[in-house]
Amino acid sequence: MILGSINPAVLMAALMVAATPILLAAIGELVVEKAGVLNLGVEGMMIMGACLGFIVAVNTGSPVLGFVGAACAGMALSLLFALLTQALMTNQVASGLALTLFGLGLTALLGQRYVGITPPRTPKLDLGPLSEIPFLGRALFSHDIVVYLTIALVAAVWWFLNYSRAGMILRAVGENHDAAHALGYHVRRVRVFAIMFGGACAGLGGAYLSLIRVPQWTEGMTVGAGWIALALVVFASWRPWRALAGAYLFGGVVVLQLNLQAAGVKIPVEYLSMSPYLITIFVLVLISSGKARGSLNAPGSLNRPFHASD
Amino acid sequence: MIRLEKRKEPSTFWRIANPFLAVALTMVAGGIMFAALGKDPIAAIRLIFFDPIFSAQFGSYSRPQLLIKSAPLILIAIGLAIGFKANIWNIGAEGQYIIGALFGAGVALAFFPAPGWYIFPLMVLAGAFGGFLWAMIPAILKTRFNTNEILVSLLLVYVAERILAAMALGLMRNPDVAGFPGSRDLRRYEAAHNAELIAGTGIHWGVVAALVAVIFAYAMMTRHMLGYHIKLAGQAPRAARFAGVSPARLVVVCLGISGALAGLAGMFEVSGPGGQVRIEFASGYGFTAIIVAFLGRLNPLGIVLAGLLLGLTYIGGELAQMMLQLPGASIQVFQGMLLFFLLALDFQTNYRLRLTKGARI
Amino acid sequence: MRQPLLRLDGLTKAYPGVLANDDISFEIGTGQMHALLGENGAGKSTLVKMIYGLVKPDRGTMTLRGADYAPAQPSEARRNGVAMVFQHFSLFDALDVAENVALGMENPPPLRDLARRIREVSTAYGLPLDPNRLVGDLSAGERQRVEIVRCLLQEPKLLIMDEPTSVLTPQEVEVLFRTLRQLAQEGTAILYISHKLDEIRALCDEATILRGGRKVATCDPREKSARELAELMVGQVLTPPERPAKPKGAALLQVTNLSLTSNNPFGTSLKNISFTLHAGEVLGIAGVAGNGQDELLLVLSGEVPTGADQVQLKGTPIGHLGPNARRKRGLVAAPEERLGHAAAPDMSLTENALLSGAQRKRLARSGFINWNATDRFAREIIAKFDVRTPGPNVLARALSGGNLQKFVIGREIELAPDVIVVNQPTWGVDAAAASFIRQALLDMANRGAGVVVISQDLDELLELADSFAALNEGRMTPVRPAKGLSVDEIGLMMGGAHDMTPAHGVNA
Question: Beta strand pairing status for C311-313 and C467-472?
Answer without folding.
Answer: unpaired
